[in-house]
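REQUEST ID: PR-0412
SUBMITTED BY: lab tech R.K.
PRIORITY: routine
TASK: structure prediction, single protein chain
INPUT:
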Amino acid sequence: MQGRAFAGPIAGFAALGAFWGGWAVLVPTVQLAVGASKGTLGLALLGIAVGALPPMLAFGRLIDRGLRRPLPLSLAALAGCGLLPALAGSTWTLGVALVAVGACSGLVDVAINNEVAGLEAATGRRRMQLAHGVYSLGVIGGAVVCGLLRQVGLGRLAILAAIGGIVLAAAAANVRGRAFQVTTCHKDGRATESRGRFRPGRALLLLGLAAAAAFVVESGIENWSALFLQRTLGAGAAASSAGPASYATAMAAGRLAGQRITGRLADRTLLAGGALLSVAGLAAASLAPSVPVAAAAFFVGGAGVSVAAPIFFSAAGRLAPAPERAGAVATLTTVGYSGFLVGPPLVGGIAQAVGLRASFAALAGIALLLGLATPRLALPGRGQ
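STATUS: complete
OUTPUT:
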């Protein structure tokens, strides 16, 4: 029965991954439909992050105050708002639509990670690596399926509607899920209602900053590996996709492997080892003489950093008492996801100044700092 309790949230992770994998494939179609240049499209895409961050903390507090069924509600909202980019007729309306999509995705992020953290606390079983691994598989599956649907001529609205159906199915699968953090107890057994007044401590903020560093590395590989293969190593359009494809595969494989290792190794050991593996991969990528070597290096770099996010979300859920768990997860999410804002312009700025090889060397340095910081992070206990 304990294993079944995780089925709904893990289905939610798969659906969220499928949504973003499918969206990545549709970006060129949407760009053409609204007539956006590369620069204006970049600004519109920034709306995803801008929309995601502000609602996260507020949603965490609402969950701690006893909001019922936050996961199915947020998934249903994402399914609806996910159609908006297909309806946009200009760059600015696309930007507005993506702010709404980002906000809904941010709500799902908080709700879904909080749900798994609560289940881990309630059952004593660790499944965060598995959940995030399934998300990565969802990204790959969503990208492949939506690419095929584009190939047979389906339009962006039909494809987003199909993805929305998957997200709605995941919402339905979570309607009967339990809430694990409405109350806690005093030592004398009296129940205390959650007040949603979570105040992040130093330990949680340090976890958030470490997560931000990991997300800088993730976004750097995801967004710049194809350009590195094409511009620096002379790969063609098809061959340049080996970078992001290798990275996506590594994220899934690394997290699924991390689930098997969780319980045998302390989180601190797994995080530090993964960070050092990522250092090796990124350093090799910065020196790679050919496309196959670089693609293999991106796989190693992605696999190493892949275990970081699940470790941080799980730790945040264990740091806070039950009535404040959602606030802790929301804080970790908000601070950590700032790395996705910082990463692309940081790598781009370094690339503009001294080249993409130096950018990946800088990412290796950030991964090294993450590994060195690991002993100072609050990462309690082993998993099961």
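NOTES: The longest helix spans residues 91-123.
REVIEWED BY: pending
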